[in-house]
From TrEMBL:
Biased composition (Gly residues): 269-280, 287-299
InterPro entries in the record: AfsR-DnrI-RedD_regulator, BTAD, OmpR/PhoB-type_DNA-bd, Sig_transdc_resp-reg_C-effctor, TPR-like_helical_dom_sf, WH-like_DNA-bd_sf
Organism of origin: Streptomyces chartreusis
Name of the protein described by the UniProt record: Winged helix-turn-helix domain-containing protein
Entry keyword annotation includes Signal: no
Family indicated by similarity: Belongs to the AfsR/DnrI/RedD regulatory family.
Length: 792
């Protein structure tokens, strides 16, 4: 096959996308184009009649839906076969009979390749199967058919692929156990079981993995926790696989093995657990190498598909080991679940109540030259986990569980330390941390101890770079709790006797509460936010506490948006954060400082310096395993490509779409909602391209500023004028200059002198900045150009 004959790659294991033969993203235009492509992929080469496509694409079809569909198909053909000669029949997206079909090989579609890889893995030796499954699971970029997953035509295939992915995770765990790597399997299965608590096979495999690492008590606790969960939440008993495995562990059945006999060497599908009544000891009776798509874990007719289980797991507090929750303050096995079974650079089960950021961000333990030999394996028992981080985690967690009483308040503080570390892992970790943070605060308030509550609230000093809140309602609750605690702490300070804490300690706690209030009030017009930030910084400087000062500087950064044109002030805050954090080993705040400076220098058009800070932030992120940093630096790379002016618009748009794909699992809705359409709008306006957005574009919170321009592009001037009159002032955040410039451009187009004057007055302080570039994500170009338009 010549290079010209190599078909493009098509992806639905995440946002719907396509890649050329060199792996570059192909611009597929708008959501309708991607939905046509996705619908044809669902059909797997079968012809989809035009009438069906129209029904699937529109609830309320346009005047000429068939003509619109043909336009989408023509654009897709040009994108997928750019070298095809005019009037030459299409080879990939073909017209056949009453409709269209996709004619591409199996390897061209990531979902089809994934299905085959999982099926093949069941027939391979365990070493090869592990490699194949790692590669297959690595193809996932987000939920299957992400933006279309809940469309009726995509729902079944999306859920089927999700189920197959869960099946592959469990298949990989069996392969690892067959290789004697039960400790690795256990680490992965703990998070898997917590996210999908109704999959009995996940609990069975986790218990077996723990047993094979010599942890019988933990294995039994997993099984009993699963029984409690199923009984309490679904009113059912465990299936035969779980019951059989529990009995076998109690009897220490020889056939279970503890890593001494690969499960792969037994009957197909037997990874441990005596066969009962024709079953292979698995919760779903699945044989190794069974039909793709029939993942494990059916709770006898009550199994919930993977797409619904995750949300239920959240409601149940990420159930694991006796259905204990992080919010309850218990940091034993339940806390290990919250941390996904991994040590996150200082995530300590018994976290200190002091603000010791150096300990929090320490490097993970390195392999010892002389590994400790404090526990000798008994005959037939596997040694402790070989991974040093996992070994330390398990030992410390077990010691904490033995020594700290279940109702001790120290558990609540330890939980907060874990949540802080969990938050910086991103994705589901960030979402879980936010949820359980509120529960921890509520639990502390219930105990009636303002000093404890202050420590629980203030210990969550997670660096924040984005100015739009992810959950405003939750933020308001945190602010209210912090204000109540601040009042109680002030009253407590005035009565010195009877309390162990010193006024200085109270001052540090007050500063953390104030910084929290400022951070959680960002983007609002409340005077309390800037006031709290200034007070927190004053206290931190007086106490000469570096970690406290870094937290207060972050709060101050979030309150530097009372007008436009404040990038130089934020640049100064970023510079102090970098210097302070580098001196005192505060790696998370050092990373934050580089990102702050990246944003500020971009606003000022100094991309050489911004590039330096992007590289520095990425280096710290790699060293300290901070995956969310890559979301921001990837967006910055797209902005950087945009600002060169040399790349074609299609290439820049593809870069923005690639960056947006990272947001799907980042756990930051305040950042992700509406951001991609806004970035594309800015790009097309700057380059005077057709806007090319459809009526269903989700602009998120940016709709009031985008709508007038969208309506103008459609020739609906009277509606655009009404929309412009209804446009509010932009929120005080990183995008306020960009939103003011959108307002200015619409006002100029409509000849609205009053709005032009308002925009001009608001933008004057930012005359030397690039609109929007202060976000580090997008730009509308020099503010000076919009000032000139408004003055004309």
């Amino acid at each position: 096959m010549s290079p010209a004959d190599v078909p493009p790659g098509l992806g639905v294991l995440g946002p719907v996308t396509a890649w050329d033969r060199d792996g570059n993203t192909i611009a597929l235009k708008g959501p309708r184009h991607r939905s046509v492509l996705a619908r044809l992929i669902v059909a797997r080469g079968r012809v989809v009649p035009v009438a069906h496509l129209v029904d699937d694409l529109w609830d309320d079809p346009p005047a000429d839906p068939v003509g619109a569909l043909r336009t989408f198909v023509a654009a897709l053909r040009r994108a997928l076969e750019p070298d095809r000669s005019p009037r030459t029949p299409a080879r990939l997206l073909v017209t056949e009979g009453p409709g269209y079909a996709l004619r591409v090989p199996t390897d061209a579609v990531d979902a089809w390749w994934f299905e085959r890889a999982v099926a093949d893995a069941g027939k391979l030796p365990p070493e090869e199967a592990t490699v194949r499954l790692d590669e297959a699971l690595g193809r996932w970029r987000g939920p299957a058919y992400a933006e279309f997953a809940e469309q009726p035509w995509a729902r079944a295939d999306s859920r089927r692929l999700t189920e197959l992915r869960l099946h592959a995770v469990e298949l990989r765990a069996e392969a690892l156990m067959s290789l004697g790597e039960a400790d690795r399997a256990a680490a992965d299965l703990r998070a898997h079981g917590a996210e999908h608590p109704w999959r009995e096979n996940a609990w069975r495999l986790l218990a077996l993995a723990l047993y094979r690492t010599g942890r019988q008590a933990d294995a039994l606790e997993v099984l009993r926790g699963a029984r409690t969960l199923l009984a309490d939440q679904l009113g059912i008993d465990p299936g035969p696989g779980l019951r059989a495995l529990e009995e076998d562990i109690l009897q220490q059945a020889e056939h279970l093995g503890r890593g001494d006999r690969p499960a792969w060497a037994g009957r197909p599908g037997e990874a441990g657990g005596r066969a009962r009544g024709g079953q292979s000891g698995q919760a779903d009776g699945r044989a190794w190498g069974g039909r793709p798509g029939q993942g494990g874990g059916r709770a006898r007719g009550n199994h919930l598909a993977g797409d619904g289980a995750s949300g239920q797991a959240d409601r149940l507090g990420q159930v694991d080991h006796g259905a204990r929750t992080v919010a309850s303050g218990q940091v034993d096995h339940g806390a290990r679940t919250a941390a996904s079974g991994q040590v996150d650079h200082g995530a300590r089960p018994a976290a200190s109540t002091q603000a010791d950021h150096r300990a929090r961000t320490a490097h993970p333990a390195q392999p010892d030259r002389n590994p400790p030999t404090d526990r000798t394996a008994r005959p037939g028992e596997a040694p402790a986990p070989a991974n040093p981080a996992g070994r330390v985690w398990e030992q410390v967690a077990a010691a904490y569980d033995r020594t700290v009483a279940p109702d001790a308040r120290a558990r609540l503080e330890s939980t907060t330390g874990l949540l802080r570390n969990l938050a910086v892992t991103g994705g589901s970790g960030l979402l879980a941390a936010r949820e359980h943070r509120l529960a921890a605060v509520a639990a502390a308030e219930e105990l009636g101890d303002p000093e404890l509550t202050a420590r629980v609230i203030g210990a969550y000093d997670v660096p924040a770079i984005w100015t739009r809140l992810d959950d405003p309602e939750q933020a308001a609750q945190v602010v209210a709790a912090a204000e109540r605690t601040l009042t109680a702490l002030t009253a407590l300070s005035s009565t010195a006797h009877g309390h162990a804490a010193t006024p200085a300690a109270h001052e540090a706690d007050k500063a953390r509460l104030l910084a929290t209030i400022a951070l959680e009030s960002r983007g609002t017009r409340l005077a309390r936010g800037p006031q709290a930030a200034r007070r927190a910084e004053e206290i931190a400087r007086r106490l000469d506490d570096p970690a406290l000062l870094a937290f207060a500087l972050n709060a101050g950064f979030m309150q530097t948006f009372d007008r436009t044109g404040l990038a130089p002030r934020r640049d100064g805050i970023g510079a102090e954060l970098v210097a302070l954090s580098a001196r005192h080993g505060l790696s998370t705040f050092e990373t934050l400082g580089h990102l702050v400076r990246l944003q500020a220098r971009s606003a000022l058009g100094d991309f050489t310096t911004a590039d330096h800070h992007a590289v520095a932030a990425d280096a710290l992120a790699v060293r300290h395993e901070r995956p969310l940093v890559g979301v921001f630096t990837r967006w910055y790379a797209a902005l950087r490509l945009d600002t060169t002016g040399r790349a074609p618009a299609t290439e820049v748009e593809a870069a923005y779409r690639d960056a947006a794909a990272l947001l799907g699992g980042a756990g930051m809705p305040g950042l992700s909602h509406g951001l991609l359409p806004l970035a594309l709008l800015c790009l097309r306006l700057r380059r005077t391209l057709p806007l090319d957005f459809d009526d269903h574009t989700d602009w998120g919170p940016y709709a009031p500023w985008a709508r007038p321009l969208f309506l103008l592009d459609r020739g609906r001037r009277s509606e655009a004028a009404e929309a412009l009159h209804a446009t509010p002032e932009p929120p005080r955040d990183l995008l306020q200059e960009a939103l003011w410039c959108l307002t200015a451009q619409a006002a100029v187009a409509l000849g609205d002198r009053r709005t032009m004057a308002r925009a001009h007055a608001a933008l004057i302080p930012a005359a030397n900045e690039l609109a929007g570039a202060g976000s580090g994500l997008l730009t509308l170009g020099p503010v000076a150009g919009y000032l000139e338009l408004c003055s004309g």
